[in-house]
Amino acid sequence: MKKLLVTRVIAEPVLEQARALFDTTVRTAPGGLTEEEAAEALTRYDAILPTLGDAFTAAAFARAGADLRCGMLGNFGVGYNHIDASAARDAGVSVSNTPDVLTDATADIGMLLVLATCRRASEGERMLRAGEWGGFGPKSLLGLQVTGKVLGIVGMGRIGQAVAHRGHYGFGMPVIYYNRSRKEAPMPARQVETLHELMGEADIVVVTTPGGAETTKLIDAAAIAAMRPTGVLVNISRGEVVDETALIEALEAGTIAGAGLDVYEKEPRVPERLRALSNCTLLPHLGSATVETRQAMAQMALDNIIAWSEGRDPPQRVN
Ligand code: GLV
């Protein structure tokens, strides 16, 4: 029986199937594998089902070196920027991810952040819970109306399109998007040439690019400065895509109106300065966190490992 490591507790029916097919170890410790632990796991298991926070870096593969035993990383999650996929390929390790099954859940969280931030929902709820609500006021907690506002999508992939769909059909929003390659959109939407054009034209910007080296700090101080003073920035991709310090400075100075974040540069650490701001909505990386979606992600990750163990090409292989 091949040895499988599941780095976090996942849906029980999927774990049951894993236990029937593999000599399965489920790691129950909270938090991700450090680089050292990842390297050790690569030498001890034939396959690994890792997730966000597990440091399968180039250094981890180098450290495993000639003792490498693992041939497959079936990642739980569409984003796999915590795995150096080319170092894995060079070491002969296949990597797969879980696209599609989490698109709707993640786009829903995108809209939740748009609505909550524009309508100051978290701020209002915090005020009420603190016993500070003085009653209905014609001028209290006025926010930005979402319906009809210009929605700007950065990265028109599966999740970007799903957010655009919700914005256009659900909230009558004209949609513009920035994508590094030419891309047809399956709903009325206009592709703009430059990121700064998008940042300046949109009332609400939603970032849905993949993470990784190519998009790190794509939304930098200059891009944030191109936004309108009434603009709202939502990030549901990866924390590193937005320059967190530049964003905090813009929010503190009021050069943009607000931000809705589901992801952070150094999760689970969220800077105190960000937590102190009232004009942002901060969620603990909830994008794909529904019972249905997490079950489907677990199943897809395991199905890829099963395919690999049977000598088939993993259907969601990325390297
Ligand atoms: C979650 O962020 C994922 O990449 O699946």
Explain this structure.
Strand 6, helix 7 and strand 7 form a beta-alpha-beta unit. Helix 1 (about 10-20) packs parallel to helix 12 (about 290-310), helix 2 packs across helix 3 (about 60-65) and helix 5 (about 105-120) packs across helix 7. This protein folds into two domains: about 5-100 and about 290-310, Rossmann fold; about 105-280, NAD(P)-binding Rossmann-like Domain (Rossmann fold), CATH 3.40.50.720. By secondary structure, it is α/β, with parallel strands linked by helices. It is elongated and about 65 Å long. It has a seven-stranded parallel β-sheet, sandwiched between helices. It is built from twelve helices and twelve strands. The longest helix has 19 residues, at about 290-310. Bound molecules: glyoxylic acid. Glyoxylic acid binds near residues 52, 77, 78, 287 and 288.
